[in-house]
Amino acid sequence: MIQGDVSKVLKPPSLFLRRLKSANVYGFRFVQLLRSSRRSRRFTPSQEPNMILTAIDYAIIGAYFAITIGIGFWFRNRASKDIAEYFVSGRSLPWWIAGTSMVATTFAADTPLAVTGLTIQHGLAGNWVWWSFALGGMITVFVYAKLWRRSGVMTDVELVELRYSGKSAALLRGSRAIYVALIVNPIIIGWVTSAMFMVLDETVLFELPASTLEQTVFGDNALSVRPWLIIAGTLMMVGVYGTLSGMWGVAVADALQFCLAMFGCIALAWLAIAHFGGASQLEAKVIENFGEGGTAAFDLIPDFTGANAWLPLHVFLLLLLVQWWATWYPGAEPGGGGFIVQRMAACKDERHSLLATLWFQIAHYCVRPWPWLVVALAALAMYPELRQSELADPAFNSGVGFPRVMRDLSPPGLRGLLTVTFFAAFMSTLSTQMNWGASYLVRDVYQRFMRPDATEKQLNRASRYASLIVLAAGGVASVLMFGQSVDAAWRLLLALGAGTGAVFMLRWFWWRINAWSEIVSMFGSLLFFLTVEPIALASGLVSADGGGPILGPEVKMFSVAVMTIALWVIVTWLTPPVDDATLDRFFQMVRPGGPFWKPVAERNPNVKVDTDIGLSILTALSATGIVYAVLPGIGNLIFGHYQAAALCGGIAAILTAIVAVLVKRLTRVDSHS
In CATH, what class is 51-497? Predict the structure, then answer.
């Protein structure tokens, strides 16, 4: 029963797939979806004011869209120079723009809703599903960022043919580029679009009657069509400024969008606290509505053994110690990858690359969460029926609480700003996914396999076409994924990538890994993912709904990871190693340290390799400690627990001083390499 409760935090992939089928994805009829989309998801609120936009709201929204399009035109000529300008800003981004662009991309329309759902289900501790990635992120900062920057790649899959050789490397590079660009990317666009649809439906379009023109054109479907038209218009706008401006425009727009989004969320959190007359009153109401053991809503470390325990200790340890390295997930790739690598490649140098990823991790875990968490707690306090519905039905999406707080509390002026907040979050993610996906199609498919001799003009034109292809694929996925929960999609990608993370990290430090190691890990992960659950069901380890006393979704992830790692290690030893020339070239360029490059290092005695791996890992651990001290520190400060806040602040200050000293030592060591 306890494990079944945990599965409500992360819906099992099997449940997600069954819900996809029940949504008629495979026999999709668009008109039926439009007719049912609005009323079927309506949840009767405690109060029903319309979030009607005024002239000042429309002015704010109009100014935002005008500035965004203006950025696209401003950087148009620069993006037209070559594909290095288009995809990696000519490798000239300063760290603060690159890092802010990273965090803006992960601040999508879906994220505040997902955080709200997790908090309503299990209190603040429910967010360990994503807080647990902090250590992996810090290791990327201090261990892998400099390696990626030295490699000189434009995309992370370009590393494949730099690190490996032969037809297997070419096969891996091309297939993974297509997989990420045209499967993973559209899935991400699909779920953030679904979240944006919910935000529109519950705020500015809530109970807003159709105009005469809309009724004339769309008839009974007028109300249901309206959000799709708005989203389609947004997609086209992203297509315009994203294809015009390339990475410089995307990154600068991201920085603006992040600032707007944070300002809007902070303003909403302040209003939520004021609505209850103060943080202590909000805290009391949350405790009252959370039910038995109400104070558990504010526990950052859950009770593992009490009567109301929902998270077993072994599952918590799997999240904290295994998930970050065992699974591949966009934005939290073990060792770095995806759009994170693209931003690192766009930085001026190694130092800017490190600072950009460090700022991303700090902003991601320390700056962004608490405005979302305060609004999530306010939703729990204002709408207790959300938690009751979530407990009664795991398929219920309590993330709807965030836009409902927006609708019920925001005054004129702030309504426009909050609308811009979600458009900014939505568009920053779309523009990155579009540019990132296009970089694979152009650099790793078109230029590598179709037109190796293509001119810069041809590549630039292909880049714009590829951007539109990725955006169009995302639009199709948005329709197919309509109505699916965000955390279910998160869980699907996490489980599918279980076991692949280890090979992505170790390929930098073990010469024996080859292209077949990665290929087998990808297909092995999928195979084990599909077979573990049926075997567990047949053996009685889990129930039909994916829960069970022994094998839950986190244990399943761990099981898939262990089997996948065992498989690719065996295949690594059974297949030929990478040829000496390729290994030597990679070793000379990247200069990785550690004992597992010994045969290559003996052939290249003049290469000054990194000697600071242990120091880098110690720095990453200390920086992770900062995150885990700042998170409760800010919360205690908000809710008036000043002694606890001071203790957390003191720990964070000590760890910050330690990290500063360690970073100086790392910089000194690197300068001597």
Answer: mainly alpha
